[in-house]
Amino acid sequence: ALEHYKIVLDWREKNLPALDPDISSILKNTAYVYMHMNSYQKAYKLFCRVVQIQIDNKDKDNHLIYALNNLAECIKKEHIEPEKTTEIISNLISNGIRNKGTANLCNRGALDYFYKNDLDESLKLFLLQIEILRNDLQEESDDTALALMNVGIIWYNKNENEKALEYYRLVLDWRERNLSSCDSEISSILSNMALSYMQMTKYQEAYNLLRRAINIQLENGDENQLIDNLLNNLTDCIKVLHISPEITSGIINQLISNNVRTKGTANLCNRCAFDYYYKKNIDESLNLFSLEINILKESLQEESCDTAFALRTAGLLQRDKGQIKKAIELLNES
Predict the structure, then answer these.
(1) If you ran DSSP here, which 8-state letter would residue 334 be given?
(2) Mean pLDDT score of the chain, rounded to an integer?
(3) Alpha-carbon distance 31 to 48, whole Å?
(4) Is the pTM of this model over 0.70?
């Protein structure tokens, strides 16, 4: 394919004006072949030429959008510096090209600045993406929601949590209008909102959001990393708010009945066990430590410091109950 495309390109460059759309077309086809060969650097250079020809021809049709979308993919694969992406975006904007391809390129540049921890430049490009999607294209889509959420995440990382929550609420509103009430995407944004409230030390608000997010995950039968993060953050809230162990125990029963036997569940058992201990309810405390140990050893096959600590604490509690033989077994295992 490349051999034949090169013959065509040579002929067209000798016989056609430099800005002829037919040259742009063959460059685009050649670049696409390079992408299939994983030669993204070569594809990147060709798509840059395609975009410039399209701009010079004041061509804003789907061919340009296609080129920009593929250019964004090449930038991602080749880890092109976001400063170069910003130059391309500036060229597009100065020529009045504010289409879906430009928005996608803004997203790519914003993410790359974010990964470099340049939050200010990342924020500028995400806001430009949102402006193009909402104002120029009148588009309220999942792409818009994701960009809004990313702006919220940046404000969270800048410790501007009121601003973060403002954007998170926009995302939540869109998702609640367009998705099922138990969609994991709703759970995800609730989790982000909870983190902002925790950073503001508003633990009750965070606790309420986390409970709702966990219920959504359980409805979906999801056993992914998100539910562990939710449970770990919930455990922190329970500790700060001094939530009664009876309530925590109810949450744990709900998790176990849904076969959620994760590290997050084990951590919640540990929190609840200590809270029962502080209420001098040794039997319930022992039950929760035993459940924690069972999850760590049987479900997770984990022999860790957490396992050893739970075994040691359970052993000491058995000692306090006068169950010396059980205590020695647990302490020896610890």
Answers:
(1) -
(2) 94
(3) 10
(4) yes
